């Protein structure tokens, strides 16, 4: 697990067409008509999509309103002569057959839901020696949201709560969660840890009944970021962080900041024995005050 911040900006740089989709659709002019100008409006939407969300090998065939006039449906077709891409090896493969049309949810436009409709092709990949569904550049596996929309929701989830994000775009909390999970997963897969000189470890309570998460941050002078989140505040949960970064990176840690929770202290002694261990001042003062109270109590009892 990790924060939404991890990977979101890198994902923007990796998929510039999704950046353009987010920016251009946020300011694009689109007149919704139910009159004879509907065809013209549909063409305008296709023009916008070709400008900000264009992919090689695919064309936007036509756009239409749904029967209830609450959403816009855009048909996508493979460009003539283009080869489908195997979803396993990510290489072109021979076509096998075509599935029924599938719906992908795109960024809403001026209060209208937007859906891309595309009939997925299956390919007979000679490299993988299996028949699989093709890979499409705007989608991620079986997710119903387009990559552009997931990135859009995840960026809003950085600014406001997930519940407010879902309400603002008339979607579900589960879809916001799915979007954040996609961005975070991508970020973790492409993350470069680099040199880690200083870390801080702490716990946070996320539910009643002593339900905790262990958080590990990088707190170098030039880099402050969340590195890892583990369930509970046990020895095993904290050791999971060091398993992820490896022994070499752990041995190069110079400073560790933590409270005086015993499981954390034990792991730090084991994994970062050469690092300077800085204890949380709040907990030191709390321990000192507790010791003073015990001494006062003994003194009073002795003088009675």
Walk me through this protein's architecture.
It is a single chain. With 304 residues, this protein is of the alpha/beta class. The protein folds into 2 domains: 184 residues, no CATH class; 97 residues, Nucleotidyltransferase, domain 5. It is built from 9 helices and 11 strands. Strands 1, 2, 3, 4, 5 and 6 form a 6-stranded mixed β-sheet that branches. Strand 8 and strand 9 form a beta hairpin. The longest helix is centred in the last third of the chain and has 23 residues. The N and C termini lie far apart (57 Å). The N terminus is likely disordered.
Give a brief description.
The chain is of the alpha/beta class and 304 residues long.
Topology:
Layout lengths: L4 H10 L1 H12 L10 H15 L5 E8 L5 E8 L5 E2 L6 E18 L2 E14 L4 E4 L13 H13 L2 H7 L4 H17 L8 E10 L3 E9 L4 E8 L3 H17 L3 E4 L3 H10 L4 E4 L1 H23 L1
Parallel strand pairs: 2-5, 7-10, 10-11
Antiparallel strand pairs: 1-2, 3-4, 4-5, 5-6, 7-8, 8-9
Helix pairs in contact: 1-4, 1-6, 2-3, 2-4, 4-6, 5-6, 7-8
């Amino acid at each position: 697990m990790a924060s939404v911040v991890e990977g979101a900006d890198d994902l923007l740089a990796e998929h510039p067409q999704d950046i353009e989709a987010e920016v251009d659709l946020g300011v694009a002019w689109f007149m919704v008509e139910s009159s004879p100008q509907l065809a013209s409006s549909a063409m305008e939407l296709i023009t916008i999509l070709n400008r900000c969300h264009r992919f090689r090998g695919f064309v936007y065939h036509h756009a239409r309103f749904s029967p209830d006039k609450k959403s816009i449906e855009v048909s996508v077709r493979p460009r003539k002569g283009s080869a489908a891409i195997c979803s396993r090896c990510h290489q072109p493969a021979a076509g096998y057959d075509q599935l029924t049309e599938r719906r992908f949810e795109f960024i809403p436009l001026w209060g209208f839901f937007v859906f891309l409709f595309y009939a997925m092709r299956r390919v007979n990949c000679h490299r993988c020696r299996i028949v699989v569904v093709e890979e499409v550049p705007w989608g991620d596996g079986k997710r119903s949201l387009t990559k552009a929309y997931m990135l859009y929701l995840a960026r809003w989830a950085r600014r406001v709560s997930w519940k407010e994000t879902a309400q603002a775009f008339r979607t579900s909390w589960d879809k916001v969660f799915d979007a954040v999970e996609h961005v975070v997963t991508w970020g973790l897969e492409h993350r470069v840890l680099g040199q880690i000189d200083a870390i801080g470890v702490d716990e946070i309570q996320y539910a009643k009944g002593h339900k905790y998460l262990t958080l590990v941050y990088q707190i170098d002078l030039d880099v402050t970021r969340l590195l890892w989140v583990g369930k509970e505040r046990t020895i095993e949960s904290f050791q999971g962080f060091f398993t992820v970064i490896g022994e070499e990176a752990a041995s190069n840690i110079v400073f560790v900041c933590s409270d005086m929770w015993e499981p954390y202290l034990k792991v730090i002694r084991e994994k970062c024995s050469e690092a300077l261990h800085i204890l949380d001042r709040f907990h030191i003062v709390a321990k000192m005050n507790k010791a003073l109270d015990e001494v006062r109590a003994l003194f009073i009892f002795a003088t009675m």
